[in-house]
């Protein structure tokens, strides 16, 4: 069942059924509203209430004075409020709504800025960590290269020292051979018995060749030794 609300210009009344409205002192200017309506209307503008005013005509006094008073009151009020109060409330509501919207926008911008700052901080921290990792990798690589170089130099030094020791032994042996060959050559040049001149010459030539070969080997070994000592100094 449809229910109605009325406004006498000062306060609202209701809800009333259609029958209950008949007991109310309705005038054509009385504001009436029900749920199917978008806004308040005068009673005379509502189809089902028009019969109220044809069946019960108003008195002369009411016909002359009451509608004018009601219309005057109606023209001065909106939704039960004075127009000045209504527009003031409307303006205040608009200001509150504007402030609320601005606060929401500002909060959203602040949230977006905070999110961007956090993302930037995260990206910077990530870049810093990656840079530290790369630096650590370079340091480790340098350490590995240095260790490899030191091991390689150690192997070279060991190899050079081993070769130098061999050369020293070979020099001693060759110098002993040189001394022996020199003595043999001297003896061969002095010894003349049981040999022909050609045999003597041939023997001396062989001894001279041996002596020259030994001297050449000694020179080569000494040169090699000098080079190895130089390499050893460069490695150190």
Structure overview:
The protein has 236 residues and is of the alpha+beta class. The chain contains 6 helices and 6 strands, in the order ββαββαααββαα. Strands 2-1-3-4 form a 4-stranded antiparallel β-sheet. The chain has a two-stranded antiparallel ribbon with strand order 5-6. Strand 1 (4-7) and strand 2 form a beta hairpin. Helix 5 runs antiparallel to helix 6 (197-235). This is GYF domain-containing protein.
Helix content: over 70%
Distance between the termini: 112 Å
Radius of gyration: 64 Å
The biggest beta sheet is recorded as: 4 strands, antiparallel
Low-confidence stretches: 63-73
Total helices: the number is 6
Assembly classification = single chain
Average of per-residue pLDDT values: 83
- Order of strands, main sheet, comes to 2-1-3-4
Strand content range = 5-15%
Helix and strand succession?
Answer: EEHEEHHHEEHH
Which geometry do the CA atoms define? rod-shaped
How many E-type strands? 6
Structural class: alpha+beta
Overview features:
two-stranded antiparallel sheet; four-stranded antiparallel β-sheet; rod-shaped; single chain; 6 strands; alpha+beta; 236 residues; 6 helices
Quick rundown:
The chain has 6 helices and 6 strands; from the N terminus they run ββαββαααββαα. The protein is an alpha+beta fold. Among the domains are: 4-79, no CATH class; 156-235.
SSE diagram, text form:
Layout: E1 4-7, E2 12-16, H1 18-22, E3 31-33, E4 41-42, H2 50-55, H3 60-64, H4 66-76, E5 77-78, E6 81-82, H5 83-190, H6 197-235
Antiparallel strand pairs: 1-2, 1-3, 3-4, 5-6
Helix pairs in contact: 5-6
């Amino acid at each position: 069942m449809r229910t109605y609300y009325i406004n006498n210009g000062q306060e609202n009344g209701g809800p009333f059924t259609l029958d209950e409205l008949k007991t109310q002192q309705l005038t054509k200017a009385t504001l009436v509203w029900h749920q199917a309506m978008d806004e308040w209307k005068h009673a005379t503008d509502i189809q089902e209430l028009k019969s109220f005013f044809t069946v019960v005509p108003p008195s002369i006094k009411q016909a002359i004075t009451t509608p004018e008073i009601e219309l005057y009151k109606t023209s001065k009020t909106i939704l039960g409020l004075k127009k000045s109060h209504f527009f003031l409330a409307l303006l205040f509501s608009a200001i509150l709504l504007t402030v609320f919207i601005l606060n929401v926008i500002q909060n959203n911008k602040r949230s977006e800025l905070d999110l961007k700052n956090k993302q930037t901080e995260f990206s910077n921290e990530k870049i810093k960590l990656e840079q530290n990792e790369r630096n650590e990798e370079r340091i480790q690589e340098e350490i590995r290269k240095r260790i490899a170089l030191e091991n390689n130099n150690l192997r070279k030094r060991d190899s050079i020292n081993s070769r130098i020791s061999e050369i020293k032994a070979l020099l001693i042996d060759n110098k002993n051979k040189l001394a022996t060959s020199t003595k043999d050559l001297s003896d061969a040049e002095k010894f003349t018995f049981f040999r022909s001149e050609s045999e003597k010459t041939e023997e001396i030539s062989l001894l001279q060749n041996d002596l020259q070969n030994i001297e050449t080997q000694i020179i080569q070994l000494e040169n090699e030794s000098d080079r190895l000592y130089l390499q050893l100094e460069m490695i150190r």
